[in-house]
Amino acid sequence: MESPKGKKSTSIKLFNWFESRLGLAKPLTEAAQHPTPERSASWWYVFGSAATVLLMLQVVTGILLALVYSPSAGEAWSSLQFLNHNVTLGWFLRAMHGWGSDFMIAIVLIHLVQVFLFGAYKFPRELTWIIGVFLLLLTLGMAFTGQVLRFDQDAYWGLGIGASIVSRIPLAGGPMVHLLLGGPIVGGTTLTRFFALHVFIIPGTLLVLVGLHIWMVLRLGINEWPMPGRIVSKASYVQEYHEATHKDGIPFVPDAAWKDAVFAAAILLSVMACAALLGPIGPTGQPDPTIIQTAPKPDFAFLWLYAVLAYLPPELETPFLFLAPIVVIGGMLLLPLVAGEGEKHWSRRPVAVVMVAVIAVTLGAFTRLGTYTPWSPLMNAWSGDPIPTRYLSGRSPLEREGALVLQNKQCRNCHALGGEGGMRGPALDNIAARMTEDQMIRQVLQGGGNMPAYGKALSPEETRALVSFLMTLRGKDLSPAQDYSRQLTGTSAATQPAVENGARVQ
Amino acid sequence: MSTSPEQGIPTQADEFKESAAITAAKAAKHSRRAFLFKLSLALNGAVGAVVAVPILGYLLGPALKKNASYNSWVSLGSISEFPEGETRLVDYRNPTTTVTDGMTGNAACWVRHIEGKQFQVFAINCAHLGCPVRWFPQSRLFLCPCHGGAYYEDGSRASGPPERGLFEYNYTVAGNHLLIEAGSLPTLSTEACNRKKPLIQIEPHAPEGVVAEDARSARSS
To answer: Which stretch of DSSP H or E encloses residue B119?
Structure first.
């Protein structure tokens, strides 16, 4: 029997056998123990490592899903149902992968903001930032292609939206659409090429760039805690950093790394909690283009874009779609080259702080709007949302007939009454306080201001009934809108009866 | 260069430079091998270019094909299935489907029977970003659920973000059957329709003054 000492010497021998061939122990130990500025061992510096850990989670869960997923347009949707319902813990793996991607985007964005506000992109870490910009784009690319692999209704129509955007490219639009789709329609070859992007091309590039990113962090050192007035200068920074980290630096492992490890564990647990409590994301309806009863919507990360595309004036859309990414990405890439020196501390960089605040509020507001899409007509409001009874009681037969017209002609799809209905057009609860009868007739028949003209869809009788009903809607007894030019010319007779009607019932 | 501050960062750069210099000096003594090495690089470059041809051809294949070449005539059924004056949703199988397309190879279009042999066949894809538009016969409008694009019954733009009317398929009436020329997803640059046929010409007998007349009669009543 071997003594413990003998066992130990055997394991050392084994280690040495490998180490003499691999030669990794020394560089790995050096990398792990590289000196870190003491104040940088902070909870603010944990987001980069958390993003890496999430990437690993995505790789592992992604490979596990690939064991079952079928990247064929005819079977993908069913294979996800199979994963959700028939494969042991398939639903949980799908949920972890889905929520993991949401967490990864969030953590990558927080990491980006932290690096920006701490001036960490400045000399000599410009290239680290530039590669980081590409990592952000690749992460968003993973989110989009992953949403396509879900291959449900949202994915199908999302691809249609992608094709429509690409089709706006001047001159080369048509070939580019076919290149994107891998053929003339959204179909089998579309799914397989997005599968190749999601599973091979983007993750491969992502892993290589993450490797370079981390390599540069180790090589150039972790950014020191910024101090107001401590100016970055290319002439002296490297020496100053070197001296500071060697004077009062601490080894990354274990002195700083424990915070990264704790945070990463907390994030992984959060992903698991979301997965367990909220379940897998989709799939929604089948990707059958003949089922048109659908209102496709992108995933959370792209809701802001959905909102922007709804609010842009039509003639600005194409220029925006192709110029904005160039400006934004170009700006991010050039940032460290233009502002590579100077102050790092946020209190001395008010423009940077305001920029972050404005961009965050803008994206947040657009995302919020994207969650309830006030610009979308509610396709079932005309048949599903009844007119509040208080708007019908005491009305004349003609006015009630008008209420029926309002309902039957799908007005409610865009106009709310009593808080129910579409929000594309203004709510009509107090329309008579804002528009005169003549203005209403003109607006209904000729449209304008984002409203279609109903001249061909309404008979004169229907128009008369509709407008007489609308004239009774004056909110909380507001005074009716009046055309003062009529009083001047003494021809107010036309508006008079309707006003009386309104006053009677409100 | 050695005084540059960037030089302060790398520790291996100097070593690398040194060893590179030694290698270069050694190579200089063996100019034939150095020449052969350069030649081998050129050879690999040339082979790489040759290999790239089929790879690029394979990758760009879908883009090299003309859009019209995807299209062929598809029957939507007998004319009698489309009552005059109505607009109906018709499903058909895309003529260019592959074995893996599954249900995505299905397609749908809106058929408007104007009168006699006069039709309009619209793509369901909104001209804005391609979402499926729905027809509302009561208000005689097509509405898009995504960003609220609206079109009149003749497909012309009514309101919202689209910059133009609905996409139209070429159609023909062969015997008793309605056929459309379909095959590729209709987008701004891959329309199924040839552009020679202006939208206004489709309905030459449409009373142009309807809007104004209605406005007048509604007010006078």
So the answer is: strand B118-123
Give the distance from CA B113 to its chain's centroid.
27
Neighboring chain A residues of B100 at a CB cutoff of 8 Å? 72-74, 187-189, 191-192
Q: Are strands A342-343 and A231-232 parallel, antiparallel or unpaired?
A: antiparallel
Closest by Cα among A459, A210, A72 to B217 = A459
Q: Does residue A171 come out as left (phi exceeding 0), alpha (psi in the -120 to 50 range) or beta?
A: left
Q: Is the CB of residue B114 less than 8 Å away from at least one CB of chain A? A: no
Q: Which of A174, A377, A447 lies at the smallest CB-CB distance from B190?
A: A174
Percent of chain A with pLDDT over 90: 83
Instruction: Give the distance between the most distant pair of CA atoms in chain A.
Output: 120
What part of A 443-502 touches B (C-beta under 8 Å)? 445-447, 450-461, 463-464, 467, 494
Q: Token pair for residue A184?
A: 């003339």
- CA dist., res. B185 & res. B130, Å (int): 9
pTM summary value:
0.87
Evaluate if residue A491 carries a pLDDT over 80: no
A487: confidence class by pLDDT, cuts 50, 70, 90:
confident
How far apart CA A184 and CA A162 sit, in angstroms, is 14
Q: How would you class B75 by CB atoms within 10 Å of its CB: exposed for 0-12, middle for 13-18, buried for 19 or more?
A: exposed
The B residues from 137 to 156 touching A (CB cutoff 8 Å) are: 138-141, 143-148, 150, 152-153
**C-beta atoms of B103 and A288 within 8 A:** yes
Domains along the sequence of chain B with CATH: 5-64 (no CATH), 68-200 (2.102.10.10)
B183: left (phi over 0), alpha (psi -120 to 50) or beta: left
The answer to whether residue B70 scores a pLDDT higher than 50 is: yes
Q: What is the mean pLDDT of chain A?
A: 92
Residue B134 touches partner A, C-beta closer than 8 Å: yes
Domains observed in chain A: 38-372 (1.20.810.10), 381-505 (1.10.760.10)
Q: Is the pLDDT of residue A485 over 80?
A: no
Q: Which residues contact B61 (CB under 8 A, 6 or more apart)?
A: none
In A, residues 103-142, which contact B (CB 8 Å cutoff)?
124
Residue B163, pLDDT > 90, answer no
Residues A175, B63: C-beta atoms closer than 8 Å: yes
* Closest B-chain CA to A424: B148
As a whole number, mean pLDDT of residues B36-63 equals 96
Which of A185, A375, A409 is nearest residue B139 as measured by Cβ atoms? Answer: A409
For residue B85, what pLDDT is reported?
Answer: 93
Q: b/e per residue, A425-457, with b = 16+ CB within 10 A?
A: bebbbbbbbbbbbeebbbbbbbbeeebbbbbbb
